Amino acid sequence: MRRFKVFKSLVRDSLDTITQGSRKYHLWMAALTFMMLVGMYCYSIQLDEGLSVTGMTDRVSWGLYISNFTFLVGVAAAAVMLVMPTYVLKDIDFKQAVLIGEGLAVAALVMCLAFVIADMGGPSVLWHMIPEIGVFNFPNSMLTWDVLVLNGYLFINITIPLYILFRHYQGKEAKSKVYIPGAFISVFWAVAIHLVTAFLYQGLQARPFWNNALLGPRFLASAFAAGPALIILVLAVIRSSTSFKIQDKTIKKIAMVVTVAAQINLIMLISELFKEFYAPTHHSESAYYLFFGLHGKDALLPWIWTAIPLNILATVILTFHKLRNNFKVLYFACFILFIAIWIEKGFGLIVPGFIPGPYGKIAEYIPTGIEIGVTLGIWALGAFVFTILAKTAIGIEIGKLRYKK
């Protein structure tokens, strides 16, 4: 009964905290709310007219929604790069950032599930994903494995930080015997959510572009580059706009993680390009379409030839110690690396898998305004969720929010 009373007080104090702030904070939340409303309006059109209002067709049935879903799975998994050194290896330098990273993982998972709902056409078909009620088809379907690991990872990333914050809210230290087992599980679970997503694509025999043994490892490498890169950018904003102090050495250690992951990702990219173009077969047509166009069709060329130079530039900048330790340069490198991997794991991975079709026909995909509106609305939802979680967590960690007996 007492715990329920404390939790009720925590919820009340959290609501007071997230409804108060500076003018910049209120403008930020108002902008996110406006974008969510635009997204809801676009989604209402999609509900009314169906998926025909999107750029997807029976030829290219996965587009902007699944591209963002695939990318955000990696962002969610990246939280493990802070969880493992903090909770498992007892590295105190990561301790300041770990709750921020887990909050980012929760927001990313919320967006993942929202993109799945958008891609399914509407929430009315979600009952198919309920075991024993819908057509769940477990364990034969890789999609059902993806649903399970995503929801399981969301549960882990909510419960562990919630327990730690709940204890800190009362002025007590969290008991390691309670959260350490969950931290160990989250390390393996984070790897699982990305590998299962990669296996989902690899298991489609009719799509040779995805039948690549490096797809799973490269998913992990790109995730551990883009996710921590975003965490660094978020920590930079928190350092400049709140009283939550994050030491330079914390950001430098995360930057080292980004650097190693970006280098591995680039090496794997070169390996894939060699395999596709040194001794090409008819299965290389998707890669040719992506990088050079095919039969006069070249809608993806501007995307991929923006991503590749940005990826190389960011990796080169991060590789040099002096450049990486200059925080302005570091933030720039993290930003362009995040954009590059978003393009590469989105349009550069999902759409080319459908082109050309089984009979050699090329049907290009271009997202419509409705898709873009829904996508921006979902990204705004994720930013809104993260802002609420981060503001509450920071208030508790700096001692501003405490339970009043």
TrEMBL record:
The keyword Zinc belongs to this UniProt entry's keyword annotation: no
Classification via Gene3D superfamilies: Formate dehydrogenase/DMSO reductase domain
Identification of the protein by name: Molybdopterin-containing oxidoreductase family membrane subunit
GO CC terms: plasma membrane
Protein's UniProt keywords contain DNA repair: no
Membrane-protein topology: Multi-pass membrane protein
Keywords, in A-Z order: Cell membrane, Membrane, Transmembrane, Transmembrane helix
Subcellular location: Cell membrane
Pfam families: NrfD
Principal place of residence: membrane
Regions crossing the membrane: 27-46, 66-85, 97-118, 147-166, 178-199, 219-238, 250-270, 300-320, 329-355, 375-396
Family: Belongs to the NrfD family.
InterPro entries reported in the protein's UniProt record: DsrP-like (IPR054823), NrfD-like (IPR005614)
